[in-house]
What we know:
Elements: H1 10-17, E1 29-30, H2 33-42, E2 50-54, H3 60-67, E3 72-77, H4 83-92, E4 97-101, E5 117-122, H5 128-136, E6 147-153, H6 154-160, H7 171-179, E7 180-188, E8 193-194, E9 201-208, H8 218-229, H9 236-239, H10 247-253, H11 267-279
Parallel strand pairs: 2-3, 2-5, 3-4, 5-6
Antiparallel strand pairs: 1-8, 6-9, 7-9
Amino acid sequence: MSDLASLPPLRDVIAAHGLRAKKGLGQNFLLDLNLTARIARAAGDLTGADVLEIGPGPGGLTRALLGAGARRVVAVERDARCLPALAEIAAACPGRLEVIAADALTFDPAPLLTPPVRVVANLPYNIGTALLVRWLTPADWPPFWSSLTLMFQREVADRITARPGSRPWGRLAILAQWRAEARRLFDVPAAAFTPAPKVASAVVQLTALPAPRFPARPEVLQRVVAAAFNQRRKMLRGALRGLHPEIADRLARAGIPASARAEEVSLEAWCALARLLDQAGPAPAGGRRTP
């Protein structure tokens, strides 16, 4: 049985353990228990799931996940100062919280998790996008996770859930929406954090699809999209000319005007172009392919 109610308030925990948030670690502690409970509820029914949390800090969201009935929580924390506070939560919930002292960018938690797995986290700002891209681009699909319920800076949330034709539409939206159902759940004001960041945040949820929406080889799609959006002000016939000597022809066959710019192209059309370029084979050392 858990005894979360016996734990001291988070502010007392932070004071007792000297947990001043470090900007270099992208830390902004979430102390509003109503908000952490809302995030845990948004993740769905956790009673039969393992939950992966990245950057738990003093454990506000960790408590909410356990309180929502998560079968088990695996929390990956890089900051050794937070480990004693998290150990107190683990002691209150025997067998349900495993704390891993590691860098989430280099540690693979998948072997520790039993499906179904939900990832729920107030991600450190400085690694959030990198982690999301990693979770969206594994070698095999479906991935180890069934859903991601994540806090990002609002600008990043806009980029994940953007639609074609909008300014935020880009590589992140394409990767997210190609293999997952992405939706923005709610915004979170800066005042909810300690210390308060300079920007607002938002919670986004991605639910893994059984298969990508449209066929394409992941590495080819990523290469094409990266080339296009790295020069998003250019027409695509210019931005992508290094990918194929007859790129205008390939664009036309994919239904994309050669004069279009990257943000105007739909996910389906990007996948069609990736397939056409994949059929052309890899570029030789000189950078040209045979048509």
